[in-house]
Design goal:
alpha/beta, 13 helices, 8 strands, binds zinc ion
Length: about 350
């Protein structure tokens, strides 16, 4: 595959031009916004499932793009009107690997296409409202398996999934996201870099078939105070593992709040001078009840600190962040120039 001779999509050039001028805004968390609706099993099933299964569906947030599209569209729209330029599709778990837990592994085409269309509708409505273009990022999560670690402590050589299983599952997801109208592909919450490499490979296979290269955003997650990903990499090692894909952005999301994420974002910003840097932390660390309670003002103040140090090109929020967080972050980073990028 001649990866970089493929023509870039029109949205790619538009986004890159915008990124020179200002810090681009991502949206906030879909998962915790859905949880706040306290939907029951009947609400999750809605008018009916996209395929037959007896498994309970409560908690299968991605299904709501099909069964409660108005709920998902409203969340996207609220984030767009709060200041997000880029809306992430409700597809974090929409691979056949992750959907197997819910018996919906044959419905991944429908899940991803529906989710991209719902986000697109919200993006277009927001643009009609205020004249500002919004973009849809097809969100690709880590799945429920790790390719580089064994889930069995007594058998360290065992793997519950292979690179090719992941490549095929991610390819299916990414093709459907593109069919549904995604402008970018966002591989996020990466805790195992080998999974991410399978997703990157699948994305380029899908771009080659599509005949156009979409912007690829890559976002890892540092899960604890050691400052490493679950598969053991420092932020710099993580960057060098994915650098070959020449991503539109590299960065971190989830796991830690903004304050604890800062040194890791600074490390990536130093290691990747040629690429945009993106950070979207959780609303602080979870409290004793597993809830995120950092105020919009506090999260925004931390991220304004990142921006004032010249670390940011793109920013948003992960778990626990609401439209109020996104509005506060957008206001707080607006006075600051985007981080300088070389040779983009
Ligand atoms: Zn998160």
């Amino acid at each position: 595959m001649k990866l970089f001779t493929l023509p870039r999509s029109a949205a790619f050039d538009t986004l890159q031009n915008e990124a020179h001028k200002r810090i681009l805004m991502l949206d906030g968390a879909m998962g915790t916004m859905i949880q706040a609706q306290k939907l029951d099993e009947d609400a999750f099933i809605g008018a009916g499932l996209p395929c037959d299964t007896d498994k309970p569906q409560r908690g299968n947030n991605d299904l709501l793009s099909i069964t409660q599209p108005d709920v998902i569209e409203r969340i996207h729209f609220d984030f767009a009107m709060a200041g997000a330029d880029i809306l992430e599709t409700n597809t974090f778990s929409s691979t056949r690997i992750a959907q197997k837990d819910y018996g919906l592994e044959t419905a991944v085409d429908a899940l991803n296409e529906a989710a991209a269309r719902v986000a697109r509708r919200a993006a277009d409505r927001a643009e009609a409202e205020d004249g500002r273009r919004r973009f849809v990022a097809g969100a690709v999560g880590p799945t429920t398996r790790t390719a580089s670690l064994s889930p069995d402590v007594s058998n360290p050589g065992y793997r519950a999934v292979t690179f090719d299983d992941l490549r095929i599952a991610y390819g299916e997801q990414i093709r459907a996201l593109i069919r549904g109208g995604a402008d970018l592909i966002l591989i996020e919450t990466i805790f195992d870099t080998l999974n991410a490499k399978a997703a990157i490979f699948a994305a380029f296979e899908a771009f080659a078939e599509h005949g156009t290269r979409l912007p690829l955003m890559i976002s890892g997650t540092i899960t604890d105070a050691s400052g490493r990903t679950l598969s053991g990499q420092t932020p710099t090692a993580f960057w060098y593992s994915v650098r070959h894909s020449r991503p539109f952005s590299i960065g971190l999301n989830c796991a830690l709040g903004a304050e604890a994420m800062r040194p890791h974002v600074a490390e990536i910003a130093g290691a990747a001078p040629e690429t945009l840097v993106c950070a979207y932390p959780n609303a602080g660390l979870p409290n004793a009840f597993g809830e995120y309670d950092e105020s919009p003002e506090k999260t925004a103040a931390h991220l304004a600190g990142f921006a004032s140090e010249g670390l940011l090109n793109m920013v948003g929020g992960c778990c626990g962040t609401t439209p109020e967080h996104i509005r506060a972050i957008a206001d707080a980073v607006a006075p600051f120039a985007p981080r300088e990028v070389k040779n983009v």
